[in-house]
Amino acid sequence: MSHRKETEAMVAEQPIEDWAQIPWRKLERKVYRLQKRIYQASLRGNDKAVHNLQRLLMKSQAARTLAVRRVTQDNQGKRTAGVDGVKSVKPAQRLALVHHLRHHKRIKPQPTRRVWIPKPGKAEKRPLGILTMLDRAHQCLVKLALEPEWEARFEADSYGFRPGRSAQDAIQAIFMYICKQSKYVLDADIANCFNQINHEALLHKLQTVPTMRRAIKAWLKAGVLEDNVFEPTTAGTPQGGPLSPLLANVALHGMAHAIQQGYKGKDKPRLVRYADDLVVLYRTREGIEQARSVLERWLKDMGLEMKPSKTRVVHTLEALEAEPPGFDFLGFEIRQYPVGRHHSGTQNGKQLGFKTLIRPSKEAIKRHREALRTVVLAGTGLSQDALIGQLNPKIRGWSRYYRSVAAKKTLNDCDYHLFPLLLRWAKRRHTRKSASWIRTRYWRTMGQDHWRFDHAATAIQRHVKVKGNASPFDGNLLYWAKRLQQSHPLTRSKLGALLHKQQGKCRWCELYFAESDLIEIDHITPRSEGGTDALSNLLALHRHCHDQRHAKKHAWSAPDTSHLTEEPDEGKTFMSGSEGGQEGAIPLAYYQNGLHWVLDLAFEEDRSRMRKDHSQQNFVVLRHMALNLLKQEHTAKCGIKARRLKAGWSEDYLRKVLAA
Description:
Elements: H1 3-10, H2 24-44, H3 47-59, H4 61-74, H5 91-101, E1 112-118, E2 125-130, H6 133-151, H7 167-178, E3 184-189, H8 193-196, H9 199-206, H10 210-220, E4 224-226, E5 229-231, H11 244-252, H12 255-260, E6 270-274, E7 277-282, H13 285-301, E8 312-315, E9 327-329, E10 332-338, E11 346-347, E12 350-351, E13 354-360, H14 362-378, H15 384-401, H16 408-429, H17 435-442, E14 445-446, E15 449-450, H18 454-457, H19 477-485, H20 493-501, E16 519-523, E17 538-542, H21 543-551, E18 573-574, H22 580-583, E19 586-587, H23 588-601, H24 607-613, H25 616-630, H26 635-646, H27 651-659
Parallel strand pairs: 1-4
Antiparallel strand pairs: 1-2, 3-7, 3-8, 4-5, 6-7, 9-10, 10-13, 11-12, 14-15, 16-17, 18-19
């Protein structure tokens, strides 16, 4: 099929009658194909093809539907209203929103509702602009078209607000640049970056189609509403919109190229940026000062400037004037220490004489301990389960953010400081009991763990940096699926095991997970019906797939060969259509587990083909045969059959093998 016919088929209008019946897998594929073509055209420098493909994507019903789903179902702020008061959009209203986006050229942006939120660990507050639901969906649609174009252009060492990249990637990049040589560092911060970007400079830099240019300009000039007082916006991009992080990255794109002009070979300054926080690394002080002057001139053209109170020049190994060695970046302390020959690294056979260590910064540790202290002191009237429920998310999130660096001692110290707080909390509940009685009641030894909390239980696991300019839009789905299967610093261990088991795919829609996806864990057999938290009873699903699965769990009347449509019920039984007289009724929970066993072993290589080409009756037979195989007493015989199943033989041969 030619590109023209394929593209026309992508944007063809298909009426949507029921939100729950939308083929999300098909829509995701359509949008991704267009985004991949936009990315490839941008890599080639073919701006005309990029703009044509962006127009097609904006017209596509698939893109409009996905944009609405993202802001009404996936977004964390889906229940936060803008100036129009609309929130928690229902399925019927979502369909109307999709239809409204069809005429996106007529949409007039509304002012944003300003909300002030505190900065973590500081007395300052950050302005947040809350858009209306229609403007959010429109911005998300524009982002679907713009992001692939700029992902092909962004610099390799830009990590903030980009799909597939994280703070751990930025820290690992810094480590790679300094681990073999001590360097001077320009530690800089851009003052009020989001609020001071020059509108005209940003629009000129975008060089996009007139339709999107007019829409983006209207959003930038829409103004803000605070306490029913309207205030026009003359600069900046309002924080809180889906498009704002991308626009900020576009505005800051090009800094690394500017400071490296005039240098040849590999001996050039390196700039690592995460949003508006950046560091410049070079071996000489003169090079750092020159990069500083270049950055100041470059930022001035965008209406920005560096914050003097947060901008300084330091050295990674030695004290520089009044500045101690090392620097803090993204909550990490990065420093080099002089060591002897037994601990020193080597380069080309020569000892370096120092060792690079990255640890949680002192400010980050102080903020975390204070946050735990606040929770414990405020929870004096809470039960043990309620207090644990409030502490665990903070402990796990903080520990896993820092588990990719040298943080073992810090994690143990956090447990050491948490224990007296919890002991004090327990003594307030039992004022007449002794300390030994309290310890016996609330702290017990489990195996080799003696009063160990989640801080110390977190294992140190090094993070693998993302490859150079790799992007989720480059088409290398295997690479990105494997990156997510590796225990990502922000991925829970149980989720990591499920992702490995499911080969990086959602069990409902069979699409690969992306790092920006919101993943939820669902139970096959609900806990209310006796299900457990064992991995065999869990599924990793997209958030929207999780909603769709539970919306369909009572609709088992119509057979569906592509999805699980009902929660298993131990009280119900199922009879095999062709083998029912041999074994009798089996519990539906075992039937469901048999399904996953067959999917994982028998049809792992070509699961989608088996689902399409074989009827529900054939699957019933194979599932029941798989259950019979599991009940065999001879493990050697089961192993032989499992290997034959894995080989991917035909269905007839499978029946003969299973019936043998």
